[in-house]
Design brief:
32% helix, 2 domains, 3-stranded antiparallel beta sheet, alpha+beta, 4 helices
């Protein structure tokens, strides 16, 4: 599973009301779901979901369970993007249980009791593990001032693989 780091940089943030950044700890929310609906939790850990992103000639498709766990069954994070995922093909009973658990997970993610809110001031940068921390923003009135946030994501696997390859090449060159 590719781990992603997310970054949001506030270039301008003049809006007086709203426009707050929101963060939710996915591992905490998943533990609430596991207590509430153990069977639903297991379905979200074990059934791969198709995620598809299409933009200007780019199409990215992957299949992963919504909840990512390690070999010991501990939650590492989530793959959660309702605008990019699709319900898997399952028998009717399993699909109903899966959808109920997915819907409840979404409700827990948007519960104000599970999030922190703060204003990202101009010049501030927020950096986070994108599978552990879900992020968003509250609505704001653009007539109250300009607001410009710039986001960026990077898969950690790519830089790690390049670094390992570079070490092998350097080691090989040094041996000669």
């Amino acid at each position: 599973m590719a781990r992603r780091v997310g970054m949001v940089f506030a270039l301008r943030s003049e809006a007086r009301g709203g426009g707050l950044s929101t963060l939710v700890d996915s591992i905490n929310v998943v533990s609430l779901l596991a207590e509430e609906d153990p069977e639903g939790y297991e379905l979200l850990c074990s059934i791969p979901v198709r995620y598809r992103f299409v933009d200007k000639g780019t199409e990215l498709v992957t299949h992963r369970p919504i909840i990512n766990t390690d070999r010991q069954g501990r939650t590492l994070g989530v793959h959660y993007s309702p605008r990019l995922d699709a319900l898997p093909l399952l028998d009717v009973q399993t699909l109903r249980r899966f959808h109920r658990a997915r819907k409840r997970l979404g409700e827990l993610f948007t519960d104000p009791g599970n999030e922190i809110r703060f204003k990202l001031a101009p010049g501030e940068l927020m950096l986070f593990d994108n599978s552990r921390v879900l992020h968003g923003r509250t609505a704001y009135d653009p007539s109250e001032g300009h607001r410009h946030l710039q986001g960026c994501y990077i898969d950690l696997d790519g830089p790690r693989e390049r670094y390992a390859s570079a070490l092998k090449i350097l080691g090989h060159v040094q041996e000669k």
